[in-house]
Request: fold
Amino acid sequence: MNGSGMDKLHEECGVFGIYAPEGERVAGDIYYGLMALQHRGQESAGISVCRTDGPPGNMETKKGMGLVSEVFTKEDLKRLAGNIGVGHVRYSTTGGSTLENAQPISMNYIKGTLSLVHNGNIVNAGQIKEQQMYRGQAHYTTSDSEVLAYEIISERVKTATIEEAVKRAAGRLRGGYAILVMSPRKLIAMRDPYGIKPLVIGKKGEAYLLASESAAIQAVGGQLLRDVLPGEIVTIRKDGMESDTSLCQEQKAHCIFEYIYFARTDSVIDGISVRDARFRAGEALAAQDHVEADLVAGVPDSGLIAAEGYASRSGQPFGLIFQKNSYIGRSFIKPTDEERKAAVHMKLSVLKSAVEGRRIVLIDDSIVRGNTMRQIVEMLRQAGAKQVHVRISSPPFLYPCYYGTDVPSSRQLIASEHSTEEICRVIGADSLAYLRIADFHAMVGGLPLCTACFEGRYPVAQPGS
Reply:
């Protein structure tokens, strides 16, 4: 349930970039691309553009706190004149929710200017920052993105091209990331070698597009070309696109939660339809189940498709039982538990006629702390539901994530402290079952996955571990 409270996980960011022919204006497309990525971050937004036929240093940047539609006006988009640009939406998992941490990060240096946007987490950013401070480069960096920018700049003064500097910097990075770097004449993309974070390439006419999800490519009228390969560095310039795969590796570990929850249902990531993956997750849940029910329903939004799959496999009817108010702010930023609880009730209301006197199978994507699910079950019972059987289209969360997702420490995860039976009692359900890790193959085929938050095996080790 997108933005339903501190009981839900959040992705850190969404990125979008475009390189169009000279004379075109790209700010409008970046704006709409970011709108399509708004689910990945709602705390701040930013756009940086420049003209490839203009003088060096002609970059223009606008960023602010709030949703994309709140940060940018028509006048802003008119002012942001350029045929090359990058954009960003942010949810803070590292660094505070302040304007100084909003992106893009734009910097001037001895050889020129650059603007950078970043999704994910660099687990060795602290070590890199210490080295930068020792060299006298950076003293007040507060985010991974600034550390990245300084690292690229430090290499740029020693290299002939910006792409060579990006490659040298990328060789020292550890973590899960998707990064776009704009120089006055080039747009560069790089994805972590494990492919933890998604990044795709599209085209619209003669313009090249880069985005966290294919849904953003489609939103601006573009066509998806392919995913950026894990470890690949893509450079787009006036004469076309080039690929450097020298940092690619055999081992991959794609984030399973893109398919469970983060990505938009209409996105395709690493060749797999998000909608199809969620439908198959629901089928897998039903295959291990024997509960008798009158109706199968999902918690909006990411639980809906899994519920359809469950209903299809079980032969039980699927139905909508919630009215969602999309215009209520996210409850996880409310300062007290009572205000968060009120926000959940404002965001979701139960269709009483759909549930009264019925046995309900309720599908959701995850349970983190258990508070939100307890409220939802209570709302269904108050509306007259006879039974509520909760099914979760992911395994229990047991371990934190270090790659740009806000899975909290283990002591804050209800499944790390309680058995499934105990959690069932806590949330007030008649029964509770989770997707099994073994079911991921049915969900996404043989795609190599990062499942660290379920199993504790991290593809990229934390420094010092």
User: Anything to note?
Assistant: The mean pLDDT is 89. DSSP finds 17 helices and 23 strands in the chain.
